[in-house]
Structures are given as C-alpha cells and as structure tokens.
Design goal:
With 297 residues, the chain is α+β, with helices and mostly antiparallel strands. It has helices spanning 13-24, 80-90, 96-112, 137-140, 145-162, 175-197, 208-218, and strands at 3-10, 32-37, 52-59, 117-121, 128-132, 170-172, 201-202, 224-229, 236-241. The longest helix has 23 residues, at 175-197.
C-alpha cells in the first residue's frame, strides 16, 4: 500500500492540520495525523514563538477524495449553479448503490452500538438515507458535526464497494432538512436588513456545507455580497452591501468591568439617589414611639 506523508505548519497544531487537509483536498478520516511539534505561542506583544508542525500520511492508491466544497467554489456566473447541481446529482447513489449505502450505514451504526433504523429515500429530489431512532442527539453532535462525519464515512465506504465516487446524503430525524431551511431563512432576512441599513453583519460560525447554503441563498440578490472570515472551526460568513457608503460589520462590544453589562440605552449606574421626607410629616413605625398627642401635653 503506497503511503505518502507531508509536513505542514501553523500557529497551532489544529491550524496546521486544517491547512494540510485543505491543501491535500482530503478529509480528517482519510489521513493519519502525527503531531511533530506543538510549537510555542508568541508573547503578549506578538513576538517570538515557534510554529507547530504536523505530519499527514495518506494512501496514494485510495480513490479520489470527495472535493471540499466551500464558499470559494460557490457558482457565481450564470448557469454555473445548474452545472454544480448536475455534478452533485451525478455523484448521488442510485438504485442498487443506494441499497449498498444503507447496508454500509447499518453496519456502521451497529459497530458504534447505536440502535436505529436506516430508511432509504428514493425521492429524486431528496434521494438518500434517513436514520430514525430514540436518543440520537449524540449522533448529530454539536452543530451537526457528528452527522457530517458519519456522512463522510458512509460515502467513502460506499464508494469503495460500488467502484465509483458517490456522495451519500444522510439525515437524522430530519435534522439536516430543518437546519438547511433555517439557514436559508436567516440568510434572506439578514441580507434584507443589510440592504436596508448598509451595515454588514457577521453570522455565527458554520460548517463548510452550511456556509455554502448561505452563499447560494443570497447570491442572486443585487447589492449584496458574501465572504468568509476566520479559521476553522470558527469560520464565519459576513454579509455586506455593495452600495456606496456601506459599512463593515460592527466590532464586538467588550464586556463591562466586573462582568456587568448594562441594557442597551440604559444609563450607567451613578451615585445613590436620596429621597426627601414623606408628605404629611413623620409617620410612626408600627408599635414605635410617635409625636406627643394632646393627652400627653
């Protein structure tokens, strides 16, 4: 089995790994990762420090990896979206291949000790696999990370069995469909606000496939552009306006000293306010001694 290893560097070991995976065009599960040097962080002035070094080893004879689709590859020219959709459709498993994918995923879940049923959806619009069962939250993971990893493993194993590269869509209790619909709605709503105010907005960190959904949802809107910033796993999308005088995203507001954060528009705390005497003079406390009465004079 011909193996090939390449060394990559970064400010941290994780950054070096992500850089290597991106340059090699491979997934984390397709390489063996060896951390050669975790590096040394720079001082407070940003001086000094050593880069981390990692070695990524992979099988050169393995089938071509599934390309990483990110915002840089989102179709921008007329007709390109249809070409991208046609390519994605060609890589979907069909007929017996979908049955093979279901068997692969069932075996994988059994080895993981997960009790769930794998259903095959042959709908031309949503052909893929649906996993159903109780307590599958851990299988989805934070932000759907585990679901993406499960889909990648199922796709790679199915590709080896059928003899061609296929992409197996996997959903768990409808999570992916709900998430994609939510992302489209958020993208359209934020784009409308950006167009009206001219103020750019930075969205929450997203996975690569989620960022692509956001780009596609607003790419046809005039006066709006999208770009990504940051490093995985904190890579975000910035939706901004192309109109003259448009403003960039607002800088995050630092927390108030002591951990207190005043409400927007509320005045800061000042000296304690003093109050004058109550109307009508002194009121005695219940059971206390009050002013003298006529009988006591």
């Amino acid at each position: 089995m011909p193996l090939r290893g390449e060394e990559f560097t970064g400010r941290t070991a994780e950054e070096a790994i992500e850089r290597g995976l991106h340059q090699l065009g491979r997934k984390r599960g397709e390489v063996d990762i060896e951390i050669l040097d975790r590096g040394k962080p720079a001082n407070m002035l940003g001086l000094g420090g050593d880069d981390a070094r990692v070695m990524l080893t992979f099988d050169e004879a393995a089938s071509e990896p599934e390309p990483v689709v990110d915002e840089a590859e989102v179709p921008r020219r007329p007709g390109a979206r249809r070409e991208a959709d046609d390519a994605a459709e060609a890589s979907r498993p069909k007929g017996e291949e979908l049955a093979v994918a279901a068997a692969v995923l069932t075996e994988l879940l059994e080895k993981m000790g997960v009790q769930a049923d794998v259903e095959v959806s042959e709908d031309p619009e949503e052909a893929g696999l649906e996993v159903r069962g109780p307590d599958l939250g851990a299988l989805i993971g934070r932000g759907g990370e585990n679901l993406v990893a499960l889909q990648q493993i199922a796709s790679a194993s199915t590709s080896r069995r059928v003899g061609r590269t296929v992409h197996v869509p996997v959903d768990i209790e409808g999570y992916r469909r709900r998430r994609e619909q939510q992302l489209r709605e958020v993208a359209v709503r934020v784009a409308s606000r950006v167009k009206a105010t001219g103020q750019a907005v930075t969205l929450e960190p997203m996975l690569a496939y989620e960022r692509r959904i956001v780009h596609l949802a607003v790419q046809d809107q005039s006066g709006i552009r999208t770009e990504s910033v940051g490093i995985e796993p904190n890579r975000r999308i910035v939706i901004s306006s192309t109109a003259p005088g448009a403003r960039g995203p607002l800088a995050p507001r630092p927390p108030a000293p002591g951990g207190f954060r005043p409400r927007p528009g509320a005045a800061p705390y000042g000296p304690r306010r003093s109050f004058g005497p109550r109307p009508g003079g002194i009121r005695p406390r219940p059971g206390g001694v009050g002013p003298p009465t006529d009988r006591m004079r």
